[in-house]
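In response to reviewer comment 3 from the previous cycle, which asked for concrete evidence that the modeling workflow produces usable outputs, we include below a single protein chain processed end to end. The sequence was submitted unchanged, and the resulting structure tokens are shown without manual editing.
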Amino acid sequence: HASALTMVHRPLRELVCALVLVAACLLARDVTATDIANVLTGYTNTAWTEKDGLPAGTVYALAQDADGFLWVGTNSGVFRFDGFRFVSWDALGAPSLPHQAVRTLLSDRDGSLWVGFVESGLARIRGSRLTVYGTADGLMPGPISAIAQGPSGEVWATGDDGLWAFRGDQIGRA
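The workflow returned the following structure tokens.
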């Protein structure tokens, strides 16, 4: 009896397999690789170099402020880019920043631009007001490697020798 049952189920199984195969063939679509140039339509790729005013050397940091300016941290300091040209911080006629390479930048929610230096120190630019923090303010000597803003608005800076929190104009070691 087992062989008779197998004989009945075998044609049914073959029919189901054939139907599945036909359905798979009918539903199958050609698969091709996507040409990346066709996906990224509406975008422009532009490279800026020294001839456009970007200083020679390494770009370490980028930050965009609420006004849309792109701030660039380089071996030669801080530069503002308006979409057409690069202008050094010093050429903007503002108070002078320390003449050091810039490792990190942060544009925070209150409009301040924070600048972390490669050698030592941190600066906060808010409007035309510049505040420079250093060892006299409780920072340890050494580079500032990252700056971030917390959910409550506090700004955090880290370096080789610690972590600091800035709340308003107050600084504290974390």
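The chain has a mean pLDDT of 82. We consider this sufficient to address the reviewer's concern, and the full set will be provided in the supplementary archive.
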